[in-house]
Amino acid sequence: MKAVMVIWLSLYLLACNTAPNTPVSDFEFLTPRPFGYINGDEIRHKIIIETRNGVQLQRGGLPKRGVVNRWLNLNNVAVSETKISGGFRYEINLTYQAFYAPLEVKMLTIPSFDLPLAQGGNNASQTVPAWHFTLSPLRELSIRKDESGQYMRPDAAPQLLGDDGVVYGLWAAMAVTLSSAGGLAYLYGYLPGLPKRRVFKKASKKLAGLSAAQTTEALTVFHQALNTVNGAPLFKHQLADFYRHYPSYQIADPQLVWFFNTSNQHFFSDAAQTQSATLATLRKLCATCLDIERGWQ
Amino acid sequence: MTHSQLNDWRESALRFEQQLNGIVIGQATAVRHLMLAIFARGHVLLEGNVGVGKTTLLRAVAQGLGGDYQRIEGTIDLMPADLIYYTYLDDSGKPRVDPGPLLSHHERLATFFFNEINRARPQVHSLLLRAMAERSVSAFNQTYYLPHLQVFADRNRVEREETFELPAAAKDRFMFEVSLNIPSDGAVLQELMFNPRYHNTDRLVQEMAGGQIAYYSLNDVSANIQTHIHSSDKLKTYALALWQASHSPGKFGIRLDDVDMAELIQAGASPRGMSYFIRAAKTRAWLEGRDNLLPEDLQAVYAVTMAHRIFFSPLYAYRKDGLMPQLIKGILMQIAAP
User: Fold this and answer.
1) pLDDT tens digits, residue range A206-216?
2) Which of A79, B40, B130, B150 has CA atoms 20 to 30 A from the CA of A120?
3) What's the CATH code, domain A18-135?
């Protein structure tokens, strides 16, 4: 018994002594099933290779994408590298596509190739073995002539799932969205066909950009807004007619009378006095008219 | 003249206007225009159907002003000399030459009413031009001054036969062309029909308090009004635009149906017309109790001042009655101030 153990130990130590001399510490060639393929199928190979002592894979020596032979294409080559103790671990994914139309089940071979390795000035290689698989025809050799004559035909269209509820919901949501958007556009004066709805909105923007000293510009802006709404220049003595055509503005009558009095005083009186509060009051009046324009008053 | 004196005059003027409206009812607009003409010292061309109260109104005005009133009927055989003098045989059978209607009242002539002026010949119109523009007439080798003369002329628009259209120069002498139309208010018409007060015009005119407006002071009052009422630069710009629009309405965006605006106007308002225009507008501002002109003053007198000063090209002249109100309205509706 003791002698047997000594022999096993000796063999083990012998094995440990020879292993470090090879550049590859692990090599795995992982392949899919070797049968059941038809014309146009893709075949994926995975190669795992671990090197030792700083041996590196020479990527320039890997198979190139493109035509391998008349029936085989290499569509994709992906390499990932990770560092492991004393070397590197490479994971190589190869995607082939076979274009062969056999008349009967036929065995084909993806050819072998070498993976070049290098360490400094030393070169080595690891052979990836050829891989055999069988390719089947798409159909039998002679086309069957049945009564319908539709043997060669595409797949039947799949039956769609019932989506009436979803479609109705979509239409309802769209209707609500569009009506809300239309309402808001109307209120905010975005509708191009209703330019008058934007009159006081524009005026408000202009007034917001003016300073208290720019009374002339402020009064002119508001005059122009009123003229636009009226469709013609509007003067104080025409306010009654204006209210007849636009009755909603009647509630702003005291403010509009103030505006015309202020404007007349400013533009047509020699003793024009600019009041510091004019712009602020005008902005309030414009906001009131904006509310009227939007139908909020 | 002080501010308070002008205020007193305004109160008198408004009372005067109120009384006129009580005598000639349903013609408030025309009465207001006559008031403006009186205090702006402008002559007035009246136009209207027969029997609407033109003569009654003018007689009431003359009664209120207190000056002398003279009326002459325009006829086709009326000659200029007929206004200056007339000849007759006196009681002793000797030929006499006496001053005619224009000269007989001397400087007291305040209201001269030329009825149916378009029946008179152009020679008569030309005599009237000087009397209106210069308020003087040459006769008997001397010049007669008529400083307080105010001419009111009437155009009958019913009959056009045997009439002479007033030349542009004669029309331009008139500050206003005022239309007197039949009142549209049924109550006013009933009052005119059934109230005996309006059947006897002599008695009606006598209701007007005489001399409440001193006619001999009107020139001074008018001059003071013109000085007292101010106009800003902005308003001057607006008035200028209104004037320019009477010449080139197309440039101001004014469009009339079925009218080539570039071909419409033959002549627009004259500088004298614009002077009348501003005088009338200032008088309105004064009557409204202001000391500054507003756009509404200009608008109130634009039609009566401009309509007889704008001349359409022959292509559109025959449509004047329809186009002129549209043009005036278009100008006032299109030009903004400020």
Assistant:
1) 888 888 778 88
2) A79
3) 2.60.40
